[in-house]
User: What shape does this take?
Amino acid sequence: MTDSSALPTDAAAPSSPLIVVGVRPDGGHPHPATAWTAERARATGAHLKLVSVVDPKANESGPHVIAHLESLAHPLRDDGLVVTVEVADGAHVDRALLDAATDAALLVIGTDYVPGGDRERGHLSRHLVAHAHCSAAVVPDLAPEGRSGVVVGVDGSDVSHRALAFAADEATRLGERLTIVSTWMPVPTSMDVTMAYDPMPYDLQEPTEAFAQTAVDEVHTRHPGLDVRTLVAEGDAAIAITDASTSARLTVVGTHGRSGLARLLLGSTSTAVLENATAVTVAVR
Assistant: This one.
């Protein structure tokens, strides 16, 4: 069962990016993800698709879910946005959302994570980030008031440069400070032919600080007036980014390929940040 409202003639133009946002089908209070997605659509000229996934074996009424989506879409259309709605059949929410976002520039979902709550949540965000063809955003169910700043994790990879560019653009658009987070782990060194490792690790603080400064310089080539700071620390990247994002308005990380070792390696950082998101968090592909 799939239902989509009619699009205006110009809505499907290639120049109009698509943002897909997952909406719970229960008709409850709108999640902040919808409002965040609408604000981004206004800023970028994107059009929206509100998607609810209904298990065909569950006792849920398709027309009722469509009516709920239309009740959310109507005020957004009155505000000038192009909005479609879709009810997708699927016993697995993640698979249905991935199918709905095949042509999207961004897939957005909500999370009910709260500080001090159950940190084992996150299967949905983990699966979507690993398999989506586009960037993905997780929006916590937390009040945005009192939050400031954009945080981005960088590691020198190609996707890290794209994440940095996205974060800098957003910081400029929002009028916020950008914090660049880079971490390092101690490297044991060997000084003899036996390859016996020196128990004293090699300190990478200074070279990592130098690397972070190159990221600042990269940002300032496009945004010379942007307020940028760096945070360089020894330890796990996901923990450092999450800690830096406690009161942030937006967090940005990079994500790699959809299969194989690259997905597993990057997933250890990007999905860990998304699973414990305390700020709106975007994983840039």
